[in-house]
Amino acid sequence: MTRARGLEADDKRFSASPDVLAEPARIPFDAPWIWLASGWRDLWHAPVVGMTYGAIFAGMALAMAIGLFGFEAHSLFPALAGGFLLIAPFLAMGLYETSRRIEAGEPVSLGSALLAGFHAKGQMAFFGVVLMIVFLIWMELAFVLLVLFMGGGGLPPPSQFLPTLLFTWPGLGLLIVGSVVGGALAALVFSISVVAVPLLLVQRVDTVTAMSASFRAVVANPKPLALWAALIAVMIAAGFATLLLGLVVAFPLIGHATWHAYRSLYGGVGIHG
C-alpha cells in the first residue's frame, strides 16, 4: 500500500499527455523579461536553494579556471566561459524542480532540488552526456584555433592576451573565427536544450523527443528565444566579468526563469514523439 501511494504521488509530477504531438505556444517578443521577473520571485522564495546552486556553479567555474592557469592555458578562459553556456541547462535541473514545486505549492528544500530528475535518471544522464561531449568538442576546437592562429610560439601571457586578441591580425582572426564557430555551436545547443530538461522533469518522454520539442519551440518563436539567448549570454558574461561572483545570482536566476519559459511554451501540454 505504501509503495502504491509513493508511485501515485510520483505520477502527479507528470503532465497529462494526449496522443498527439504537441506544438509550442506562440509567445510575444518581450516574454523573456516576464520569465526573468518570475525567476527573480522564485529565487527569493527559496534563496538557500538558489544561492547554493549559484555558489556551486561559480565554484566549478573557478576550479576549472585555476586548472587552466595551472597548465598555463589561461588563453582558453574565454572558451571556458562560453563552454559553461553549453552545459548550464543540465546543471540547473534542481532549479527547475524548485520552481515547479513553488508553482504547485509543494514543499521546497535543498534536498528535493539536489534529487531532481532521479525518477528519469537514465534520460537525464543521456542528455548530460550529450552536453558534456559538446562541451569537450568546443574546448578542443578552441585549443586548435588558438594553435592555428597563434602558431607554435606558445600562448601569450595573461597580460598580453587581450592586446594580442584585439590589435594583431592573428588575434583578430582568432576572435572572428572563434566567435563564429562558438556562436554556431552555442545556437545549436540552445535550440535543443532551451526547455529540454524541464520537459524531462515533468513528462514521460525520452531525450530525443525532449530535444525535438525544444527545437520546435525555437523554430516557432525565433525572435523571443533569440532575445532569451542574448539575455542569458549577457548575464553569464557579466558573471564571469565580476570574477565569478555575479554567477552566484545570475545562474539561479536563469535557471528559475527557464522553468517559466517552459511553462509559457509547453505548460500543461503533453509531448509525445
Task: Provide the fold topology.
Elements: H1 2-11, H2 31-45, H3 47-70, H4 77-91, H5 93-104, H6 110-114, H7 121-150, H8 158-167, H9 169-193, H10 196-202, H11 207-220, H12 222-241, H13 247-266
Helix pairs in contact: 2-3, 2-13, 3-4, 3-13, 4-7, 4-9, 5-13, 7-9, 8-9, 9-11, 10-11, 12-13
Question: Tags for this entry?
Answer:
single chain; 273 residues; mainly alpha; 13 helices
Structure in words:
With 273 residues, the protein is mostly helical. The protein has one domain (43-266). It has 13 helices and no strands. It has helices at residues 2-11, 31-45, 47-70, 77-91, 93-104, 110-114, 121-150, 158-167, 169-193, 196-202, 207-220, 222-241, 247-266. Helix 2 (31-45) packs across helix 13 (247-266), helix 7 (121-150) runs antiparallel to helix 9 and helix 9 packs across helix 11. The longest helix has 30 residues, at 121-150. It is globular and about 55 Å long. Mean pLDDT is 83; it is low at 1-12, 14-20 and 269-273.
In short:
By secondary structure, this protein is mainly alpha-helical. Helices cover 76% and strands 0% of the residues. The chain has one domain (43-266).
